[in-house]
Amino acid sequence: MIDRIRRVARYGLLCAGFGVACVPLSEAEAQLTTPSVTERLIELLVQKGVLPRDQAAALLKQAEAEARAGEKQPPRKVAGAPKSKKPAAAPTAEQAAAGSAEPKVPPGTVRVTYVPQIVRDQIAAQVQAQVMQQAKSEGWATPNQVPEWVNRITMYGDMRIRGEGDFFPQSNIPDFVDFSTLNSGSPYDVTGASGGPPLLDATEDRYRLRLRARIGMRVQIDDWLSADIRLATGNDASPISTNQTLGQSGPFAKYALWLDRAYLKATPIEQLTLYAGRMPNPFWTTDLIFYDDLSFDGFAAAARQPVWEGVSLFGSAGAFPVFNTAFNFGTTANYPSRDAWLFGIQGGAEWRITPDYTTKFAAGYFSYSNIQGQLSSPCTILYSSQSCDTDDSRMLFPSYGNTMTPIRDIVLPATSPNGAQPQYFGLASAFDILDLHGRLDIDRFKPIRVALEAEFSDNLGFNQAHVLSVGLPNGSNTVQAGNKAWMIRGIVGTAEIAQRWDWNVSLTYKYLETDSVLAALNDPDFHLGGTNAKGFILAGNLGIARNAWITARWLSSNQITGGPYAVDTVQADLNVRF
Fold it and tell me: What is the rounded CA–CA span in Å between residue 391 and residue 338?
């Protein structure tokens, strides 16, 4: 028994388990060899409720029987011990009386002179279980153990190094206006007195080495509530690109990190998920309409419910601020705000037809409020710092393709009839997009999967007569506009690139008319971003290690309407994630 008690006492379990004062190990071992301490230990077990009193009485009888049996055994002779020459003197009457006197004990005390092995094992197990439970809850059982809240934090991230070449045929015309650069700075004087507008590069090949690095932290606040924060690189505040072009800011200049995501995720019931903040895309779409790296600001809810075996219904809805008017908008007058929003709703179904065939389909409607450029009231600009009342309707970060229109109704002062006409530009069309998306997965060739995917978008807010009347031609003499977009893709290979030698290849064809989708939010690589383009994408992925893979892509596109504008882009990526 003393060996087991020593092990318990070595970790402080004996004293902590029974709520008594702890003593040094050497003293505890010495005390535990005495009968009185053993009796107190059994009594403590009874008082603590570890050992019921009826069981203690039964064990007492068993212990006394074993003790009597032990007393009947003859004393063991020790080899080499000297023989006694005369018997020991008999004790006196006073000594016998003193020896026979028993100490007073409290009523109900169970006295045991011998503890069986089964009881000793039970004592150790009960004490250890009780104290270890307390140790785990208070975090002091394991040396160097981190606090409990640290276990609720998960770090994650990824990195991509890309080599890219953009190739333009010499047949391209060089007169495509870069409205993104034009709208991001001071207004452009349309009289041309200060020079021509900024132009897109459509004739000179370019080579770039690019980096994308993202790191995030996910915190499990409660069983149903979590928070997610992610930082990412990026050349600027563009909503769709986290690429950083190496060397763009000067010789070995440091790069900026942007807050790419910050949102709360709540699951009050299993079938419903709520989002708030800057979140991943809550809808099931492709980069035809929303780019994969795009994060949504606002609020969203997503639900999923099985209805019968193999069939589930799902849906999402959300409201997202696209632009919020600054408090100090208007330097010479107080102008009303023109906050722009995206409201989206989508519903669909997933059907596992057989173990080898699964199909998924969804229909969505995405309405942009106040996204269209608005012509201002008559506005006279005397100083460059002045603004017109609809300047906040200009489109920020517009990619190529959407039809643009001037938004300032400039009135020249009588004293300067040929003066400057500084202008901003907004979208000529409204955008209310009906989106249809479907996919078929074939798993009969496992681990190889074959997938077919298609998406179709129709801008129901497009008014051709209005767009043609107010729009500006870009790269052509006349305005030509359309509102349809579609994509079809085939994929063959492993479903996920996670291990070495996992692979897949895909072939995609895209067709996007000018005002079919919002060019600022879709794929920035195909046709170097935007709409008014058609062409294909050939891509392949190969795993080279666990969570590491290489990607090769060839994107070839041509303009649909207007002058010739073709682009061939070749990309080679090294990707890792953790």
Answer: 10
Q: How far apart are the first and last CA of the chain?
A: 51
Q: pLDDT for 82-122, tens place per residue?
A: 554 455 555 555 555 455 555 666 666 656 556 677 777 88
- H/E stretch holding 434: strand 432-445
Q: How would you classify the pairing of strands 244-245 and 225-232?
A: unpaired
pLDDT in tens, 135-179: 666 655 565 666 778 889 999 999 999 999 999 999 999 989 999
**What does DSSP assign to residue 374?**
-
The domains of the chain are located at 1-68+109-141, 154-264+343-577
What amino acid is encoded at 553 in this protein?
A: R
> What is the DSSP code string of 296-321?
EEEEEEEEEEEEETTEEEEEEEEEEE
Smallest Cα–Cα separation from 153: which of 66, 213, 246, 217?
Answer: 217
What is the spatial distance between Cα 449 and Cα 252, in angstroms, rounded to a whole number? 43
SS3 187: coil
| Residue 10 pLDDT class (50, 70, 90 cuts) | very low
In the numeric block, the tokens 């949102």 are attached to: 263
Q: Is the pLDDT of residue 413 over 60?
A: yes
Instruction: Name 157's Cβ contacts closer than 8 Å, sequence gap at least 6.
Output: 213, 214, 215, 216, 577, 578
Q: Partners of 510 in the beta sheet?
A: 487, 535
- Average pLDDT of span 411-420: 87
CA 578 to chain CA centroid, Å, is 12
Contact 328, 392 (CB under 8 A): no
Q: Is the pLDDT of residue 2 over 80?
A: no
In whole angstroms, give the CA distance from residue 488 to residue 510: 7
Tell me 36's DSSP state.
H
Give whole-number Cα distances, 288 to 285, 481, 486, 488, 561, in Å: 8, 18, 7, 10, 18
d(C-alpha 31, C-alpha 22), whole Å: 12
How is residue 463 annotated by DSSP? -
Per 3-state DSSP, the chain is made up of helix, strand and coil in percentages (nearest 5) of 20, 35, 45
Give the C-alpha separation, 534 to 567, whole Å: 10
Q: Which pLDDT does position 123 carry in this prediction?
A: 81
- Over residues 437-464, mean pLDDT: 97
> d(Cα 558, Cα 75) in Å, to the nearest integer?
107
- Name the one residue in this structure whose structure tokens are 């505890």: 28
Q: What does the block give as tokens for 184? A: 């991001």
The residues pairing with 294 across neighbouring beta strands, listed in sequence order, are: none
- Give the containing element (helix H, strand E) for 59: helix 53-72
At 21 the pLDDT is 45
pTM of the model: 0.76
